[in-house]
What does this fold into?
Amino acid sequence: MSEEKSQIQSQEERQEEKQVNMQVKYEVKILKQITHLPQVFMLKHYYGQVTKISVISEDFIDCKKYISRSKLTFNGCFKYQNNQLAEVRGIYYTPIAPLFNLNFRGKITRDIESIKTYIIATLENYGLTKSKLLIVYDNYGFYAYDRFVKGKLYQFNLLFNQGHLEIYEVPSLKTTVNLNFEIKDSLYIYNHEIQFSRPTLTLQLHSSPGVTYLIYPKDYINLISKSPDHGENAIVLDSNKFYLITHPLPRSHKID
It folds into this structure.
């Protein structure tokens, strides 16, 4: 009887293990309220592309890995923790100057594995092996931040789209100090001509890959977008609100 019970338990355990192995991961959305537009963030577009965006023109790092076809030229970012270097991407807010900067006039290496050795040796020499760091590197050297915040991924409610051109209403800015808004009555983004019925405060943002503008109409405006592929469309935007006008990189534009 005990042997039969043991066989039944064994079968149940195998069945549970099989179910665990067959588990499927699902993408879910967690609703979160924010009062201000972050200084750096990532935007998930309507069709799924992701663009890295910075409202500020400095104090941020856009991490992207590049290796030339010859593999002799490269750059990118590592996150250092527990004596390990891990390649990272994304966009990071870096509110203070680097902890240190080691740079040379000529290339110190043409081998990406060698730059890792240089980094680890430098951290050991300066007693920084217990630190948590964001390290930006290239053939000429590297520098490290001990204060950094990765931009989070946001998906705002879509107000308007014309093909891959999108408009979102976004939260207000915490401050507009040191932001050089321009007054414009039109924008050109790839093959879209965008016209405002009134001159509008406009700020082009760091946007990778793609193009993004932040606009602030002081009065309501009629926005008309014209495109040879999509014709002409219009939307009314309210006054005293912030809007993102954005377009991910078209497939025809390759990044080298």
The chain has two helices and 20 strands. The longest helix spans residues 2-21. Residues 126 and 229 are 58 Å apart (CA to CA).
